[in-house]
Automatic annotation (TrEMBL):
This is Ribosomal-protein-alanine acetyltransferase. Belongs to the acetyltransferase family. RimI subfamily. PANTHER family: ACETYLTRANSFERASE (PTHR43420). InterPro entries: AcTrfase_RimI/Ard1, Acyl_CoA_acyltransferase, GNAT_dom, YpeA/RimI_acetyltransf. It comes from Aureimonas glaciei. The keyword Transferase applies. Keywords: Acyltransferase, Cytoplasm, Transferase. One of its GO terms (molecular function) is N-acetyltransferase activity. It holds the Pfam family Acetyltransf_1. Residues 23-174 form the N-acetyltransferase domain.
Amino acid sequence: MYWYLPWVWTATFWNEWAGTLPLVAVPMQPEDLDFVADIHSQAFDRPWSGDEFAALLSQPGAFGFVARRVGAPSNAPAGFVLARLVAGEAEILTIAVSPKFRGRGVGRMLMDQVLQHLHQERADSLFLEVDEENAAAIALYRRLRFAEVGRRPAYYSDDRGRKTSALVLKRVLG
């Protein structure tokens, strides 16, 4: 009767080791901040520290989510999003996905979680900025019905001093 339990344990171990356990978006916690800073440093030329994330998360109206494997709460998150809601207007402060999890729908899951949260809070609109050369992110935001409402010339610069513009995108929620 209990012969199958070792096989279940083996399958669970294999799924966790291989990284195939499903992901869920959960509220960002203080113990996530160093992991979040590490993911941010892999995605941006000017990374934020864990202390900077803590300061942002402590501001009124700020909230965040991390994507992590089901059943593995102590493992590093696969990605995160940090946002802020003030007077009915929300903005994505930053979002990033660990390189080994890119292309698996993690960014979409995080954005869906933000949109669900903003719906519950009855927000009117959501803004974000994205590098004009980040084709994957722009495609995601277009699928999520964001529209370009502005452009910030030479907003981003890489470690070689090359400048690119930021697209300002908006989604009407209400």
